[in-house]
Design a protein that fits this description.
Elements: H1 3-13, E1 22-23, H2 26-32, E2 35-40, H3 50-58, H4 63-68, E3 70-73, H5 77-89, E4 93-98, H6 103-111, E5 115-119, H7 123-137, E6 140-141, H8 148-164, E7 173-177, H9 182-194, E8 199-205, H10 211-217, H11 239-248, E9 251-255, H12 257-271, H13 281-288, H14 290-293, E10 297-302
Helix pairs in contact: 1-8, 3-5, 3-8, 5-6, 8-9, 9-11, 12-13
Length: about 325
Amino acid sequence: MTAETILSAHDRIRSYIHRTPVLTNRTIDALAGAELHFKCENFQKIGAFKARGGLNAVLQLAPHELKSGVTTHSSGNHAQAIAYAAREVGAKAYIVMPRTAPQVKKDAVRGYGAEVIECEPTLDAREQGVAEVIARTGATMIHPFDDDRVIAGQATAAKELLEDATGNRPFNWLLAPVGGGGLLSGTALSAHYFAPGTRVLAGEPEGAADAILSFQSGRVESAPYINTIADGLLTTLSERTLAIIQQHVTDIKTVSDPEIIAAMRLIWERMKIIIEPSCAVPLAVVLKHKDLFAGQKVGIILTGGNVDLGKLAF
């Protein structure tokens, strides 16, 4: 993927998305001992950065593909992204979602006019559901992260952050959470092309720690166990995302659920904005590893704010 790929993606989706604000907070800076700039994708269309990748993929489909509709499997934010993108271009969307996905996310997908097909909460069940949709409708599958069009779209969040918060000095670090690796891959590619002196680091929950194992071994690994509040980060990497991450990401750090919840609460209380648990993982990393970031300028992508308010962690 080239710099031009990301620039073209940004031009393609620009009129469909918000250019989300970059916020700072002196209290959190003091606690972290660093200068933090938060890219607020919780204010994005659908409430998450995934609108970017979904739009970039759907907007590149041919008319005959759009006529048959689009499909994907997702526990939440990518589901909403594809449903929203399909609505914008007048296409039908068929979204396979685990029955355990937050009701607020299932309701939102239906609200964009998509058909929700519920399945058991396993990857096999999700993939089987999509296969059945394709056999029934001829819809085009848009993978949540294993797709260059999606990765290029996600890269535009970091591109904007680099443009909007450069100030007097460049970023030392950009941080993003990692699930399937679409956002992390895009963030790393934007740093590589547009801020080559900036290092990229990922945060991952201890209760879904596959990416750190994959990063260390060089092959796609599974997490030893799955048990985390960060429900948006449960997927494993793909060969595509792992290759980009190994080439362009400096490190991956894990944090516990109590550390994630504390960071989430801190943002709610001090910044007065709503974020979801997965979104708090990078700040939890900064607070856990203060020595690594001391005195440095750090960009953090706040990935989304789609919270089930009936099930708050605090």
